[in-house]
């Protein structure tokens, strides 16, 4: 997830391009769709209300629930070591990527060594699970079916004690 670390210097530009808020929830949904933040309008209508909150007396009244800029001191720690932790996990692993994503060196080597299953979903953006929920569900079911039969020694299946 080194590509995420490489993108961190551009986060402020991304945040600067976001409006401070919206005059209505409908405007917030429309912004997410027209900026290709979420490509699926139906999904945007469902998910955007959970990230926007109404603040009476504020202008604009519909504002971001999470002030992302205030989390900047933690951004590097969120991603540092993530690839190695992912590869060290003692379980079947699936990495689902948008068509434009790329792997860092550590993940590329791990993928070539067969340490995880990788699925690339074309035609989606950052919110790939929202942009193409049917395809993501198919990938998850295929992964579950493939790994339901293969349980390495010492690793418990989900739900086992």
TrEMBL record:
Single GO MF descriptor: protein methylesterase activity
Domain of life of the source: Eukaryota
Alphabetical UniProt keywords: Hydrolase, Serine esterase
Alphabetized Pfam families for the sequence: Abhydrolase_6 (PF12697)
Hydrolase as UniProt keyword: yes
Record InterPro entries: AB_hydrolase_1, AB_hydrolase_fold, PPase_methylesterase_euk
Name listed for the protein in its UniProt record: Protein phosphatase methylesterase 1
Naturally occurring in which organism (per UniProt): Agrocybe pediades
